[in-house]
Amino acid sequence: MLVLVVNAGSSSLKSQLIQTEGKHVLMKCLAQKVGAPDATMTVSFAPGFQGETYGVAGLTVEECLVKLLDILATDPASPIGSLDEIDAVGNRLVAGGEYFTGATLIDDGARRHLAEVEELAPLHNPVADRCIDTVRRLLPDTPQVAVFDTAFHQTMPAKAYLYPLPMRYYDDYSIRRYGAHGTSHRYAAQQAANLLGRPLQDLGLITCHLGNGGSITAVNHGESIDTTMGFTPLEGLMMGTRSGSIDPAIITYIMRREGVPFDEMDRILNCESGVLGISGRSGDMRDVLEAAEAGDERSQLAIDMYVYRVQKAIGGFYAAMTRTDAVVMTAGIGENSAALRERIFSGLAHMGMILDKERNDVTGQIGVNRIISIDDSPIKICIVTADEEIRIARETADLVA
Ligand code: ADP
Question: How close is the Cα of 393 to the center of ligand 1, in Å?
Fold first, then answer.
């Protein structure tokens, strides 16, 4: 089955055209820094994947998708002659609430329920929903599936998913931890088990998805038992533009002190905080690493805080599990930044996570899953290239078939 996977992020669009029978990727698209003046979109086709990069300043994520569909339909290098050849579209959705517990075929009813859970991931779900509407408009006869990041975390026990609030908030509004990045954590765990040459069911793993958004999950015997993201993807780690966990009383204090309305407070926490808020420059880790290198103190502080919070989360889940065999690093920062990995693990050697500096070096190794701890490190450290798209394509094909 030929599946177009659409993975719309807050400031990015990742898409792949995948022939699911042989897991053949026929097209890759990556739009980055969408919304910024230097936004770009790179589209490449099999077999060579010689990408063409387009400037997409001024376009929204869904407008990038329209551009991509146009390129797919008209580019002579495109593997398809017409968009009708696409059998199904698989959409990554960050939040599914308690309503969506697995991948779902999108009909009018599902689309209405998607609107109802938008507020659980205000940076992501509305963008993904607009992409779904765009495809419904342009390809009305092509089935679409939503694959949810929250599904993998449905195995968390109540002690992990409940908040210590009056129980009626869970009973009345389903306020609980849902987690996110589930597709990525599940894939990272399975790939790490392959690297270690042991069945996933025998392992205790701490999977770290560190991208613009970031979350860490305790995967015990293949199941998520706890994760840092919560009711929404705002909880947990310090992120590109999201605060992560802070004292909740700070929010009411600022709102009272400055008369900040609810929506504006939401925006401050989601879009103006995290690495951007502290560095005052950018939420993009590459920019901030570069600025710190050039001597910018606030960028250095942002990196110190980011690293510290990742270390504390790994330590917390080490305590939550009965065994830890490996820590797995994935997504933009986790896969690509040798410097940040070195910083993170330099503070964790006493827990038995001992990085091998040479293996950690990325030169020539980008995209290669590998173990980067020393041979006799009691807990292994792995890098897994995030491949959410393949998993989304497979789940989509299964449902549509
Ligand atoms: P998203 O959460 O939008 O899917 P990604 O997983 O693509 O994001 O991660 C984006 C983040 O990864 C950005 O902060 C980017 O700066 C960072 N990143 C990518 N490559 C590197 C690198 N070589 N060194 C440091 N950070 C990097």
Answer: 23
Cα dist. 64→7, 41, 136, 301, 390 in Å? 12, 8, 16, 34, 21
Residue 364's pLDDT is 67
Q: Which residues contact 296 (CB under 8 A, 6 or more apart)?
A: 279, 281
pTM summary value:
0.85
Q: Quick one: tokens of 201?
A: 């069911």
Tell me the Cα Rg of the chain: 21
Query: Ligand 1 atom closest to Cα of 337?
Result: 24
What pLDDT digit, counting tens, does each position of 78-99 carry?
A: 999 999 999 999 999 988 988 8
The response to whether residue 212 sits with its C-beta less than 6 Å from ligand 1 reads: yes
Tell how far the Cα of 227 is from the centroid of ligand 1, in angstroms.
20
Question: What is the phi/psi pair of residue 231, to 5°?
Answer: -60, -35
The ligand 1 atom at the shortest distance from the C-alpha of residue 288 is: 16
Report pLDDT digits (tens) over 199-225: 999 999 999 999 999 999 999 999 999
Domains, the chain, ordered by start: 2-148 (3.30.420.40), 198-388 (3.30.420.40)
Residue type present at position 68 = L
Q: Give the C-alpha distances (Å, rounded to integers) separating 226 from 127, 161, 186, 221, 347.
A: 27, 7, 13, 13, 22
Atom number, ligand 1, closest to the C-alpha of residue 12: 3
By annotation, the residues acting in catalysis are 149
CA 159 to ligand 1 centroid distance, Å: 32
Specify the pLDDT at position 9.
Answer: 87
